[in-house]
Design brief:
143 residues; CBS-domain; 5 helices; CBSX3_CBS_dom; CBS_dom; Diverse_CBS-Domain
């Protein structure tokens, strides 16, 4: 299964924000949309960063609530690992495990087209395992 097949099923909608937004604004988006990360893009949808709920908690826990009014360009992760629609679920799992992150922006021709989360990957991997199990069970019963 590829990243594109996951996006085809779940949709290509992804929450973005500009680098001048404040951490307070990011926190409001995370809470309102009930999501774990926001991709930071420029006006042309090029990925310039990502900020997760874990990033926000770490900054506020370390520096205090005064950081809520800081622009996220000072807080976001700028070396963002991305994927394209052709990578497999296994390749995405390897990226997430190696980098210890839970969200992977999907980029095509340099522009953001979607976002894959660890939840998406696990959901699709479990569905794949269930299909394999069902096929094996049917094969055994038919012999």
């Amino acid at each position: 299964m590829t990243v594109r097949s996951i996006l085809d099923e779940k949709g290509y909608d992804v929450q973005t924000i500009g680098p001048d937004a404040t951490l307070r604004e990011v926190m409001a988006v995370l809470a309102e949309k009930r999501i774990g990360a926001v991709v930071v893009t420029d006006a042309d949808r090029h990925v310039v960063g990502i900020i997760s709920e874990r990033d926000a908690v770490r900054v506020i826990g370390r520096d205090g609530p005064a950081r809520l009014d800081d622009p996220i360009r000072a807080i976001m992760t700028t070396k963002v690992v991305t994927t394209d629609g052709n990578e497999t679920v296994h390749q995405v799992m390897e990226h997430m495990t190696a980098g210890r992150f839970r969200h992977l922006p999907v980029v095509q021709a340099g522009k953001l087209i979607g976002l894959i989360s660890i939840g998406d990957v696990v959901k699709h991997r479990l569905a794949e395992m269930e299909r394999e199990s069902t096929a094996l069970r049917e094969y055994i019963l038919s012999t």
